[in-house]
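Repro:
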Amino acid sequence: MDFMANEHQVRPETTPNPASFTKVNYGGQAVIEGVMMRGSRALSVAVRNPQGGIVVHTEPLDARIYGGRLARVPFLRGLTLLWDALGLGIRSLLFAAEVALQEEGNVDANGEPEKVFEGPLQWTLVAFSLAMSILLFFVLPTFLAHLVERLFGWDGSPVAVNFIEGMIRLTLLVGYIWVIGLMADVKRLYGYHGAEHKTINAYEANAELTPVSVARFPLEHPRCGTAFLLSVVVISILIYSLLPPLDLLPRILSRLVLLPFIAGIAYEFLKFTAAHQGNALIRLITRPNLALQRLTTREPDMGMLEVAIAAFENVLAYERSLVTVQAGDTVISPVAAGEAAPTGAAAATVDAVPSR
């Protein structure tokens, strides 16, 4: 998932009210047979349904999180945005699963996917996903490093012990990404991840948003969530090395307590480096982040690019309509032609060529 602020202007030749836009945040996430794209005001999920069409769901974001005071407080904003991004990602994945269930006739009276996953179940899944990630990539490496320390009878320095712990954490992260990438379904997910990156790269280069044009652009993007994970691992090695030697339980607790602080630093680091990619030193520093993305992306086919473009164009049009409404203009909803400007969630089915 990409969640970092995007430091570029919306193209004025296509914006109904350019003065209303300043800095825009475009990121996204691959989902099952689809892509979620997120801006600063709205998100859109486009998913290929079993019949070969593209189902698009678009909704506004919480202005208190993305436009409020917290969004302007360094380090703290990273925590709030990351938590919300996790929730949005889970919801997008569940929407994609609901679209897949259409094959079994699970649709509501309006022909939209039946909402099987929502309410307490949705947030239970968010909490479970977060807990498993912390257990696998933070608690387990700390425990394994403690075993290594006991095995060799080290009283070792915090720097050496924490470096070993960091290497274990990095090995688990890279190994996990590589192993699940061998699965056929995950390979397709990584293909949609590549389509998401290429689409955003094409837009930022002011290129035409067609599958043929977008296909020419790189798979890597400096704001990718994969880069964030690697940054967290590296920064954790530095931060934990400042701690004195601790027994196992206090050591695990220290990792959990400091994790939000480390995540906030990683967010600001990626925000800074993404905004300074023109600097040769910054590009050198972020090269490992981009290299790791080779494991989480695949070259997308034209059908995947169609889906990513549909999601991006929908969120872009939706956000522009919101700005136009705020300016007092009349606007046609970009999500469903002929309806009023969007004030809540909206969904539409778009005809498209089946994935090739």
